[in-house]
Amino acid sequence: MQGTITAFFEDKGYGFILDENEEVRFFHLRKVINPSAIKIDAEVTFRPITREQGPAAIDVRVEFKGEHIFIADEKIKITAIKHYSVYTKKVPLARDIENNTIVSIGLLMNRIKPQTAKASKDTLEELTYLEIELFHAPSILFTSHEIDIDEALSHLAFLPITFTDKRQHNPAD
User: Which PROSITE patterns match (predicted)?
Assistant: First the structure.
C-alpha cells in the first residue's frame, strides 16, 4: 500500500501516514526500513495492519522519485552510489590566490592593500568533507567551502544507502 507521511514526532519515535484510501495510519520508527529518510510529506510504501487502537503501518519504506540527485552542479545517478560519508580534517589555511584565479573583487582588493597580520603557514582550519563512493567510478569529494554539507546530507538521507558520519563532535585536536 502507498501513502504520505503527514506527521512525525522524532522525539517520540512515531508518526502518521495518510494512505491511498484517505485513512490515517499510525507507524512507529522501529517498523521503518529506512528510518533516516523519514520526513513529513515523504511518499512511502508499507504493509497495512489493524491494531487494537486502529489502523497502523509496518515495513514502512520511503520511496524515491527520479534516477539522479544533484549536489552543487554534479548530477549523480542514485543507483551508482555505493556509500557516502562525512568527515573532518585539519588542513592548512588557504590564504593565497592562484595565478590565474580571481575569487572575488573583495579578495583581490585585500591582496592589493597592505596586510597587517599574515596567517602563519602552520595555521590550520577544520574542513568538513562529503565523500560519495560510487560503484564504477572514482569517488566524488565535496568540501564545506564548496557546498552546505548539512543541506546535501538532507537530500542524501532519503536514499537507501549506507552512511558513515566520522565528524569529530568534540574537536580537541
Answer: CSD_2
Whether residue 73 sits in one domain with residue 51: no
| CB of 60 closer than 8 Å to CB of 16 | no
Pick the closest to residue 119 from 91, 89, 145 (CA basis): 91
Residue 173 belongs to some domain of the structure: no
Residue length of the chain = 173
Domain count, the chain: 2
Residue carrying the nine cell digits 568540501: 143
Write out the three cell numbers for 71. 549536489
- pLDDT string in tens for the chain (173-residue length): 999 999 999 899 999 999 999 999 999 999 988 787 788 888 899 999 999 999 999 999 887 766 778 887 788 888 888 899 999 988 887 655 444 444 444 444 444 544 445 555 678 888 899 999 999 889 999 998 888 888 888 778 767 777 888 876 544 44
Indicate the pTM of the whole model: 0.50
Rounded-to-integer distance, Cα 169 and Cα 145, Å: 19
Domain that holds residue 82: 68-166
Residue 67, CA distances (Å) to 42, 80, 117, 119 in order: 17, 10, 50, 45
Q: From residue 151, how far is each of 6, 85, 122, 135 by CA, in Å?
A: 22, 14, 31, 23
